[in-house]
Write a structure and sequence with these properties.
The protein has 146 residues and is of the alpha+beta class. It is 20% helix and 38% strand.
């Protein structure tokens, strides 16, 4: 086999391996509770978020990672269940928005529900509505494995 044939074969194997990798997920701890967080760190993943899903497991969620702190608005486009938002900066909860209802047009209002923090954040964690209350998450709580 020629040098180019071997390089092409190696490239093909690399592509197959990368495509077979599972979506980035991390096990983090919030206020003593272990939680699996899918990582949304690309623009495409951030736009899609949890849209269209029927539910999340009890200790599952999604974390949106930003390169620099900012005030990032979120909208509940095509959501089917309520969410709690943990607004995070430097691995500390700096703000909480609880029990945000699913997409507003499904409940008779015009347009999707929108939420945003009142201060710059570098991460946003979305979990099932009621998670914050059930697990006693408070401002200043550390997000471990950040």
């Amino acid at each position: 086999m020629s040098k180019w044939g071997i390089l092409s074969l190696l490239f093909l194997v690399l592509v197959v391996v990368v495509l077979a990798l599972p979506r980035a997920e991390k096990r983090w701890r919030i206020n003593g509770v272990e939680i699996n967080l899918e990582v949304a760190d690309s623009p495409e993943e951030r736009v899609k978020g949890l849209s269209g899903r029927d539910s999340l497991g009890e200790n599952e969620g999604m974390v949106f990672v930003f390169e620099q702190p900012g005030i990032y608005p979120f909208w509940m486009r095509q959501m089917k269940f309520e969410l709690d938002f943990l607004w995070v900066r430097d691995c500390r909860v700096v703000e909480l928005t609880e029990k945000v209802p699913p997409t507003a047009w499904q409940s008779g209002r015009a347009g999707p529900t929108r939420v945003s923090p009142s201060q710059p954040v570098d991460m946003v964690i979305e979990v099932n509505g009621g998670f914050v209350e059930r697990h006693g998450v408070e401002l200043g709580d550390k997000i471990e494995k950040c």
